Amino acid sequence: MTTNTAPCSTATTAAESDTSRSPGSTSQDLRGRRAVFTDSQIRAAIRLLDAGEPAAQVARDLGMSRATLYRRIRLLRRDDTKRS
Question: pTM for the full model?
């Protein structure tokens, strides 16, 4: 009977795990944040939400958290009421 004495490691380093994902990956890792989302992007997100799209999906498509999406909607509406 022959036994394999070579160590078996399934752990990957951070560098290896970063290179294993494709740039367009749809994983939960958002890889940092964008500097700015435009008002028109937030308004488009509001239209999607009004059409019944789940907030989590809309936020994920934009590359932000659901909490950030709701915060940006609140800030946009507040700014719109100030301008009126």
Answer: 0.58
